[in-house]
Design a protein that fits this description.
Elements (H helix, E strand, L loop, with lengths): L2 H24 L2 H22 L2 E3 H8 L3 H9 L16 E3 L13 H11 L12 E3 L8 E3 L3 E5 L9 E2 L7 H4 L5 E6 L4 E3 L2 E3 L3 E7 L2 H9 L4 H8 L1 H8 L6 H8 L3 E5 L7 H16 L20 H12 L2
Antiparallel strand pairs: 1-2, 3-5, 4-5, 6-11, 7-10, 7-11, 8-9
């Protein structure tokens, strides 16, 4: 755990030194013993914590590195893999082996400028925003100076469809860390109430960090894939594969296709997700198989025609 653990160990050493000083210089044996007892308790706790074995989500919380980065370090041998030899189950690591990223204060303006520079744009964070005059104030519209009424339309690009496991080849550069929508599909037809879904869409979701969320889906740290992990018979029906166990399920999930739309402003994520699910329901008469609940207020809030056109482009694969 790097610098943070070293600092605590130094503090323990300082406490022990102070105990020796109290005993040798002032004869305060009782106070010295109390300090030595406290130092021993802290050191014992540190050792116990350092030897703890954790899965990637907990490791990411402790180290402040994303799960994908930690998994890559495990594959490279830079972090010892605590799984049994040959296992393809969920990755486990020892807390003491984790690197620690120094914390930083969250500064939204700085995040915006960083995102804009990485995308080669400024000011709009890569989101194509269309301002149009409207005659009446509808749902989601806002007033701007000069009494002009404008509406912002979601028009983020849809990225090319690819398998989830292919992102692992270069996770840092191919899996975006920006907010957006992701659509997971089987890659072959699935029969629905309203007809055959040729892409076999299984799940539609939103997230503030696509890279982390898609990785969590793959590793069964996601509501939908965890449901499959705990119901392997259902997983066999959904994936049309014989599933031997949890690690085998993770391997099969990696073969699924994912299509993402990004970047989308965080305040528009719920609206964008609702539009994509609404477009799917309008076409097939039901929600995707792994969307076990409807988003937010459900589909009672109507989606704008422009949002639905954008959503249909994503669902069509074009």
């Amino acid at each position: 755990m790097g610098p943070q653990r070293s600092a605590v160990h130094q503090a323990v050493a300082d406490i022990q030194a102070k105990a020796n000083e109290l005993r040798e210089s002032f004869g305060a044996d009782g106070s010295a013993r109390a300090l030595e007892w406290a130092a021993t308790k802290v050191e014992t706790t540190l050792l116990s914590e350092a030897d703890r074995i954790v899965y990637l989500p907990e490791a990411a919380r402790i180290s402040r590195y994303v799960e994908g980065h930690l998994a890559r370090l495990v594959r490279r041998g830079q972090i010892p893999d605590m799984r049994p030899p040959g296992s393809r189950g969920r990755i486990k690591v020892r807390v003491a082996d984790l690197p620690t990223k120094p914390g930083r204060k969250h500064t939204p303006p700085a995040d915006v400028h960083d995102l804009a520079s990485r995308l080669g744009t400024r000011g709009q964070e890569g989101l194509m925003v269309t301002l149009q005059l409207v005659e009446n104030v509808g749902a989601g519209e806002r007033m701007v100076p000069g009494s002009r009424r404008v509406t912002e339309m979601i028009d983020a690009p849809w990225l090319a469809t690819r398998s989830i496991e292919s992102l692992d080849d270069d996770w840092e550069t191919t899996a975006p860390r920006t907010p957006g929508i992701y659509v997971v599909s089987l890659g072959r037809p699935v029969f629905r109430i309203g007809g055959s879904d040729r892409q076999g869409i299984l799940y539609i979701g939103k997230t503030g960090r696509l890279r982390m969320r898609v990785w969590q889906f793959w590793q069964c740290n996601h509501t939908a894939s965890w449901f499959l992990w705990t119901h392997l018979k259902v997983a066999e029906i959904v994936l049309r594969r014989s599933i031997r166990n949890g690690p085998h399920l993770i391997g099969e999930l990696g073969k699924l296709a994912v299509r993402m739309s990004t970047p989308i402003r965080r305040r528009f994520l719920a609206r964008a997700e609702r539009a994509v699910i609404r477009a799917y329901v309008d076409r097939f008469g039901e929600s995707p198989p792994l969307n076990l609940s409807l988003p937010g207020d459900g589909l009672d809030v109507p989606s704008r025609p422009a949002d639905l056109r954008w959503a249909r482009r994503g669902l069509s694969g074009r």
